[in-house]
Amino acid sequence: MTASPPIPFIDLKAQRSRLGGTVDAAVARVLEHGQFILGPEVRELESQLAAFCGAKHALTCSSGTDALTLVLLAKGIKPGDAVFCPSFTFCATAEVVALVGATPVFVDVIAGTFNMSAAGLERGIATATRLGLRPALVIPVDLFGLPADYDEILPVAERHGLPVLSDAAQSFGASYRGRSVGTFGVATATSFFPAKPLGCYGDGGAVLTDDDQLIEVLRSLRVHGMGTDKYDNIRLGMTGRLDTIQAAVLIEKLKVFKEEIAARDRAAAAYTAALADVAIVPQVPDGLASVWAQYTIRLRPGRRAKLAADLAAEGIPTAVYYPKALHQQQAYQHFPVSDGGLAVTERLVDEVISLPMHGYLDQATQGRIIEAVRRALG
After folding, report:
1. CATH architecture designation of domain 13-107+114-254
2. Which sequence ranges form a coiled-coil region, renumbered to this chain (predicted)?
């Protein structure tokens, strides 16, 4: 009997096949005009990104991490400041806070959506105040492609006079009650890492905002803090530009992005319908739309390793996002957690496992995955 071929976790080759020669032609145009830094494709992409989500401004940059950093620098986040973020996320969310000298304060999440809990945020603000820190900024994360609960989080932040920076590294293209990701808070940071729903062929990111003053500061910070001339720097900045070649790639990918989002949603619906009786499947609250950066199920503790091994034996990859929460990792253990602890977060790290998910997951391949999952969990 011939073994079934291995299944990719994210099939970038299928997407490249669909795009055909358009990406090659776009890259060739950049090679021809030679404006490799801040060339015309960068400006065109920024215009298209802003139009796509309805933000007034978009500023591309070198990574999702740098997108977060640029906003922290622009908002003057500094030592003594407390910045509130979930512990159940990728390290970049808290990393940038620590790198500018401020203190990340970790708050809990909601089990059903994996996103920041408004009640946890309230506890985190109280904790920071008790510790003598200055509450300064809130960074909700739209984990796995689903927007955080902004109707609950924004009022808490407003009551305490805190700006909100949306970490949409995984959720560009999603929507929340009729509003697109990219239009919440003072700014939104996103990532174009290749595995993201909208990814380039290297590192890349963007900041989206409606704030005219903020975008001017961000443009300066992106190029070493330059003023009207790049040799007249008016503030401390960084090198945070998106390469023109990556902008050209993203312009072509953006043309098929809405269709890919719809395909991801169909694949997620198929997983949910087939697996709801054998696992805890992800929830999408009414009025929200996810871009399904990951399709993550939850299992009783102790079952995950066997499922991963059984699927691997059949050529089906899985991933765990995240095996350790940030407050459990060596680099972040000394930062404060909100009073009352992070019980939901600590439970999730033992339960979650993600299945293959992308916009080119055909029915036959997905059927093979579903059958294997059901066998393993049966």
Report:
1. 3-Layer(aba) Sandwich (3.40)
2. none
